[in-house]
Amino acid sequence: MKVTISHKEDMKFEAKTDKSSFIIDCPIISPIEYFLAGLITCTASDMIVIPKNSNKEVRDLVVDGDVVRNEDYPRKFNTLHLEYSFNSDVDDVTAARWVMASLETYCSTVNTIRDNTAISYSITHNGKRIRENEKMISGGGAKIDLGTIESCPS
């Protein structure tokens, strides 16, 4: 993956990828807001694709992200809370598994920051709150010692 940024004028930049290009207008939207929007879009797109792979459908999807940044520079993300709200034709356990699959496995942007950012999420599925402030296991930057785990040989 390659991205090239070119200065245009004032605080406007053009981002070019292998597939497309777009303007980043820093006075309007900051680079960190673009980053957060990309992060949320990553997990939101998983929430469409994962169910579709099982011939299921997510409707009315909204994912809100709330970040608290460090006070001092560099102002990295300290905490991130993601709020998922959607409807589907599956049970609540399956709906929660879709969110967890995105966060724990598939979403590259979330997995890029998860070792340094405490990440939590809540889920409203079919109008019912099914998860509240759940924390990702490895979020927060701490290594977790699960001890010896028996598993299948790889």
Describe this structure in words.
The chain is of the alpha+beta class and 154 residues long. It has a domain at 30-135: GMP Synthetase, Chain A, domain 3 (2-Layer Sandwich), CATH 3.30.300.20. Helices cover 28% and strands 36% of the residues. It has a four-stranded mixed β-sheet, with helices on one face. A three-stranded antiparallel β-sheet has the order 1-2-3, with no helix packed on it. A hairpin with a 2-residue loop joins strand 6 and strand 7 (128-135). The radius of gyration is 18 Å and the shape is globular. Mean pLDDT is 90; it is low at 140-146.
Average pLDDT, rounded to a whole number, is 90
Rg estimate, integer Å: 18 Å
Q: How many strands?
A: 7
- Level of helix content? 25-40%
- Largest beta sheet, briefly? 4 strands, mixed
The arrangement of helices and strands along the chain is EEEHEEHHEE
Helices, by number, come to 3
**Whole-Å distance between the termini?**
29 Å
List keywords for this structure.
154 residues; alpha+beta; GMP Synthetase, Chain A, domain 3; 3 helices; 36% strand; globular
Reconstruct the topology from this structure:
Blueprint: E1 4-9, E2 12-16, E3 21-25, H1 31-52, E4 58-69, E5 77-88, H2 92-106, H3 108-113, E6 118-125, E7 128-135
Parallel strand pairs: 5-6
Antiparallel strand pairs: 1-2, 2-3, 4-5, 6-7
Helix pairs in contact: 1-2
Question: What's the quick description here?
Answer:
28% of the residues lie in helices and 36% in strands. It is built from three helices and seven strands. The chain has a four-stranded mixed beta sheet, covered by helices on one side.
